[in-house]
């Protein structure tokens, strides 16, 4: 069963610029989800996969090491969207005060992604909820220097990014 678009588009205006914003439908959905046997099967498969992931995580000898590497891998992948050429190996070499094989500006930018992710995780662990304040604080760390630092670190964009 196809449910169609679960929300609507609304034209908004900010600082004289118009843009379309997607406004999701409220939860729970109406009409309610039709739990067909096929959908129930997919749901059960997803639950099984989550259970396997949970059980594998208990086998990790040191979850902090896993998190350490995961944060760095995520930083490398996220920064690639901005055009950086750094690899995970380059970042690890940089963190060991070794010379990476790519421009230092790229590696420093990836390093700021790591610092921003670490800051966000610490804030969450300290009890700050997932909130606009958390996003602004992480954004401020990301833009402390380098590309984008001349803009408004820690603040939301006031105009549409086309």
Number of helices: 5
Give helix and strand order, one letter per element, not per position: EEHHHHH
- Sheet with the most strands, sense and barrel status: 2 strands, antiparallel
Number of strands: 2
- The pLDDT mean sits at 85
**Biggest sheet: strands side by side, in what order?**
1-2
- Shape designation: extended
**Ends apart, CA distance between termini:** 35 Å
Low-confidence stretches: none
Please tell me how large the radius of gyration is.
21 Å
The percentage of residues in β strands lies in 5-15%
Structural class assignment: mainly alpha
Helix content: 40-55%
User: How many domains?
Assistant: 2
Compact overview of the structure:
By secondary structure, the protein is mainly α.
Walk me through what this model shows.
The protein has 5 helices and 2 strands. The mean pLDDT is 85. The chain folds into 2 domains: 7-59, no CATH class; 63-142, no CATH class. The longest helix has 23 residues, at 37-59. It has 162 residues and is mainly α. A two-stranded antiparallel sheet has the order 1-2. It has helices at residues 37-59, 63-80, 88-95, 104-125, 132-142, and strands spanning 7-14, 17-24. Helices cover 51% and strands 10% of the residues. Helix 2 crosses helix 4, helix 3 packs across helix 4 and helix 4 (104-125) runs antiparallel to helix 5 (132-142).
């Amino acid at each position: 069963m196809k449910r169609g678009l679960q929300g609507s588009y609304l034209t908004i205006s900010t600082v004289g610029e118009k843009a379309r914003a997607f406004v999701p439908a409220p939860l729970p959905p109406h009409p309610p989800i039709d739990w067909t046997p096929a959908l129930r099967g997919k749901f059960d498969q997803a639950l099984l996969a989550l259970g396997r992931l949970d059980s594998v995580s208990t086998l990790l000898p040191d979850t902090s090491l896993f998190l350490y590497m995961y944060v760095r891998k995520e930083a490398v992948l996220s920064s690639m969207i901005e055009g950086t050429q750094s690899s995970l190996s380059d970042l690890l070499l940089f963190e060991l005060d070794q010379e990476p094989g790519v421009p230092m500006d790229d590696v420093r930018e990836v390093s700021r992604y790591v610092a921003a992710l670490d800051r966000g995780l610490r804030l969450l662990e300290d009890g700050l909820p997932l909130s606009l304040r958390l996003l602004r604080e992480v954004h401020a760390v990301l833009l402390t220097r380098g590309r984008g630092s001349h803009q408004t670190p820690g603040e939301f964009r006031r105009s549409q990014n086309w």
